[in-house]
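Wait, can you check?
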Amino acid sequence: MAVPWAVESGSRAWGFPSPDSDYDCRFLFVRRRRDYLSPWRPRDVIETPLDAVLDVNGWDAVKAVRLAANGNATVGEWLRSPLVYDGDPAFRDALLALVDDVVDRAALGRHYVHVGRDHWLRSGAGQGAECSLKKVFYALRPAATLHWMAHHDSATPPMNLQQLLAEAPPPADVAEAIVDLVAAKAITREVGDGVIALPVRDWVNRVFADAAGLDGVPGERPAARQRATEAFVDLVDRWGAE
């Protein structure tokens, strides 16, 4: 089994860690070619026991390819993480090319709407109440991603909040307030609370409202599956250990 890609996927890579943030290491692995020919395949996920510092798990390439073809956002995020523990850039580029080719932007948008809006509503930040900074950031990054998607045709958005905002700037007062929030979270424990500035509240509420029309059920995409099949065979040929 080869592990050609291992990255940080949590708040440290997203751009807003707390002093006590754990490490969310994610990796992609490729098995031997003959393992994929067996009618009794092993699990397509490897998980390690959780502790207070490390959260480590990985996906088989077959799972990553299948999810990418179905519009899953996570695969593209792992491939664009700014914190790479170890990896082969050629593997990243090959899989990222597939993601770019088969991505369903509507499905991607729906993912960020549902994830972000859920955290936003649960946090109470939209009403100006004191709220969990962690939940706010879990909503803020999806909002920034939707804002980025509205200004870019590229398939895969950046993972990092600061890069999203740099490439698709919000109003100046919103950007300044977000900088202050990131600074506050950097010295606040994961369970810290705070009140979100009005410009940020209004901006996030507006972004989610504008993206509400993305709701819907995706249809079948046979061309994406064919492209994904070809890409998977290539990944196994090039990185599958014998």
DSSP finds ten helices and seven strands in the chain. The first strand starts at residue 2 and ends at 8. The two ends are 8 Å apart (CA to CA).
